[in-house]
Automatic annotation (TrEMBL):
<protein>
    <recommendedName>
        <fullName>VCBS repeat-containing protein</fullName>
    </recommendedName>
</protein>
<dbReference type="Pfam" id="PF13517">
    <property type="entry name" value="FG-GAP_3"/>
</dbReference>
<dbReference type="InterPro" id="IPR028994">
    <property type="entry name" value="Integrin_alpha_N"/>
</dbReference>
<keyword id="KW-0732">Signal</keyword>
<dbReference type="InterPro" id="IPR013517">
    <property type="entry name" value="FG-GAP"/>
</dbReference>
Length: 434
């Protein structure tokens, strides 16, 4: 006999937001990024599964997406100039293919076919930086199912050396880079999901890294960002804890070590996180994409989808969250000034709606109504850059579940403490602003 329990939770919060405006993507968009991909000076969007590019019009709206096929189950994306031609390229993590796809940009918002490089088993998150101090961008990827980190050194022409691997803890889910010990060498910070900690690997400056030192965070940590939250010129860390419904703040000591966590409520099911000054007070704030849609072991089902804004006090502490609704299953979030009003805006990949939401900031820590744009199926990751050199931020999105246009099919089984989640989605769509 199956016993079903229904949990009803009333949350009282500030909601200075209106209903969403949406842009269609492919099915199940899960990640999103921004950049000026066509060099027109306007921020565009890129979403994963296939890759969807949305080109900015410069007024906060976006042209219809252009899509590019990638590997199976694209789950994470980043932008950078990997071949030194002053044109933005894309690096995509193909989860089911166990590789990284590199799409070199032509500078007009179009991209060449992907070239792939082997990673570990089920790579899930990617970061780019110059790890060996040769002025060429390198890549670091965490591999979910073999609990390793792959480092691929760049040749400066858009190609990469074979991976070197480092040990992480159980089920690493996110990775970032930064100089945590002030030695002018890039270090790595990794979220170890199943062990509820983060690992910090100090860089040697030659492309190699020391063994990780771990720091405890909440249960089910999912995503991480680094910045100076207390204005002491030392990098700090913020980590979303999916199962604890909070954010861990670990203040940096400047020598590569970190203080014990302080936690702040961040909505239900916090996943992706971005940092920025959203209320123009010169103090860094946090915005978290909340996606509480997990089936727990006692058959409780929640489907609460929000973004939570935690305004910073400038001393490393944060205020209670301001909460607003988003599309279904927000998976990834990025920030940039999409309408050129000198106020930070947000772009969110909504997996179950197959859309991205663009949300304009008012400059006081609150936001206007969403505008939604279609992507491919199951958008999972998003990034922003100027891909077509028009001085407008564009967006690139990976679409993890697009089984039609891109002909990519897959099933992703994701281990979650206290829950088992079954997903299915594809790679990216690209949107340019007008």
């Amino acid at each position: 006999m199956l016993h079903c329990f229904f949990l009803f939770v009333e949350i009282v919060c500030q909601t200075p937001y209106g209903p969403p405006n949406r842009y269609l993507t492919g099915p199940f968009p899960t990640s999103i990024t921004t950049g000026d991909f066509n060099n027109d000076g306007k921020l565009d969007l890129a979403v994963d599964n296939t890759i969807s590019l949305l080109f900015s019009r410069g007024d906060g709206t976006f042209n219809s997406q252009a899509t590019y096929p990638v590997g199976s189950l694209p789950i994470s994306i980043t932008a950078g100039d990997f071949n030194g031609d002053s044109k933005l390229d894309l690096a995509v993590v193909n989860y089911d293919d166990n590789n990284i796809g590199m799409l070199l940009g032509n500078g007009d918002g179009t991209f060449q076919n992907q070239q792939t490089y082997s990673a570990g088993v089920h790579p899930i998150s990617i970061t780019a930086g110059d790890f060996n101090s040769d002025s060429k961008l390198d890549l670091a990827v965490v591999n979910y199912h073999d609990s390793t980190i792959s480092v691929l050194l760049g040749n400066g022409d858009g190609t990469f050396h074979s991976q070197t691997t480092y040990t992480a803890d159980y089920y690493p889910s996110s990775i970032i880079s930064g100089d945590f010990n002030h030695d002018m060498k890039l270090d790595l910070a990794v979220v170890n999901y199943a062990d509820s900690n983060i690992g910090v690997l100090l860089g040697n400056g030659d492309g190699t890294f020391q063994s990780q030192t771990t720091y405890s965070v909440g249960i089910g940590p999912r995503s991480i960002v680094a910045d100076d939250f207390n204005k002491d010129k030392r990098l700090d860390l913020a980590v979303t804890n999916l199962n604890d419904n909070n954010v861990s703040i670990l203040l940096g000591n400047g020598d590569g070590t970190f203080q014990r966590q302080t936690t702040y409520f961040a909505g239900l099911g916090p996943r992706s996180i971005v940092v920025g000054d959203f209320n123009n007070d010169t103090k860094l704030d946090l915005v978290v994409a909340d996606n509480e849609d997990l089936y727990a072991s006692v058959a409780i089902y929640n489907n609460i989808y929000n973004i939570s804004v935690l305004l910073g006090n400038g001393d490393g502490t944060f205020q209670n969250p301001i909460v607003s609704s988003t599309g279904n299953s927000p998976m990834s979030i990025t920030t940039g000034d999409f309408n050129n009003d000198i106020k930070l805006d947000l772009a969110v990949a909504n997996r179950d709606d197959n859309t991205i939401s663009v949300i304009f900031g008012k400059g006081d820590g609150t936001f206007q109504n969403q505008t939604a744009y279609s992507t491919g199926s199951g958008p999972a990751s998003i990034t922003a850059s100027d891909f077509n050199k028009d001085n407008k931020l564009d967006l690139a999105v990976t679409n993890g579940g697009d089984n039609t246009i891109r002909r990519v099919t897959w099933q992703w089984r994701w281990h979650v403490p206290k829950a088992n989640k079954l997903f299915s989605w594809c790679l990216s769509s690209i949107y340019h602003s007008r």
